[in-house]
Amino acid sequence: MAAAPNKRRKPQPPKTETIGKKIKKSRKSKTQNSVEKKSEDEITVGGRTDGDAVQRATASQQLSFFINQFQSANSVQLSSLELESLKETCIVELSQDTSQNISGKLEEHVKVSFGSSWKEVLCGKHLQEGKIQPGSPAVLVISSSALRSLELLRELRSLTKECHAAKLFSKHMKIEEQVVSILKNRVNIASGTPSRIKKLINMEALGMSRLALIVLDMYTDVKGYSLFTLPQIRDEFWDLYKSYLHKKLLEGDLRLCLYGPLPTSSKAKKKKPVMT
Question: Is the confidence at residue 246, as pLDDT, over 80?
Fold first, then answer.
């Protein structure tokens, strides 16, 4: 009896389910690699990290960021003399010993910036004639809103138990009441919004004689706006900075602490720089 012909089986295509799993696995792996790379590139200058385009910034990177923001927002190009005066030492490079990716560390960063004299400068409660005048803070925290100002003051709570911080914003606070309070008491730490801070300086209620550290709140809201990108607030901040802070920074009498993640992109409208 003749043997049955040997039927060759046609090669079957791989099951769709299997391909889908492989592709899905491959995509997941690619995404994981992307996340891992982003975590390596993330930079934060204190406070917290948000996974959107933030980096762990050195003093040099922070200074470059600040100068670029200043020139872009004000349509100016700093002179070579001004650029030479703005050294990395004017930036407080936040301590690596304090977990930079966790919020609530502002107190530690501020203490480190004053070194061994932090307790005397930040916690003293008595005025000293000719040396410590009323209404003259050593630390000024500048935020985009009253809410953010209060949140950062909470992070400084242990430093303000003996000498209360000055709240410098307009929400629920009359400027006349602020003037009376400031001019009566020693102020080591003050926190507020650019517009109200400038008004109080103009009224000679808030003094600049002791000011050694400016903390700039780099918090970005859900719409992507911050102190440097929210249009009206941005303009008010640079008005304050140019009027009272820029000269002190150039002379080496003032240092900056950029607290929070630095965005790699900005919503600020770029303008053609003009030489000064």
Answer: yes
Quick one: which of 215, 174, 181, 222 has its CA closest to 196? 174
In whole angstroms, give the CA distance from residue 188 to residue 208: 11
User: Exposed (0-12), middle (13-18) or buried (19+): which is 156, by Cβ within 10 Å?
Assistant: buried
CA dihedral 51, 90, 228, 49 (to 10 degrees): 10
Q: Do residues 161 and 104 make contact, with C-beta atoms less than 8 angstroms apart?
A: no
Angle between helices 175-184 and 194-202 (to 10 degrees): 60
DSSP code of 205? -
- Residues 115-140: tens digit of each pLDDT: 999 999 999 999 988 889 999 999 99
Lookup: tokens for 192:
């507020």
Highest mean pLDDT (candidates 3-7, 103-107, 236-240): 236-240
Q: How far is CA 118 from CA 123, 209, 232, in A?
A: 8, 17, 34
Residue 26: the pLDDT is 44
Owner of token pair 């550290």 = 213
Amino acid in position 99: S
d(CA 179, CA 34): 52
CA 170, distance to chain mean position in Å, is 21
Instruction: List residues bridging with 257 in a β-sheet.
Output: 215
Per residue in 14-57, pLDDT tens?
554 443 444 344 444 444 444 344 333 445 555 544 444 444 68
pLDDT of residue 137: 96
CB 227, CB 216: distance < 8 Å: yes
- The two three-digit tokens of residue 232, written as one number: 């009206």
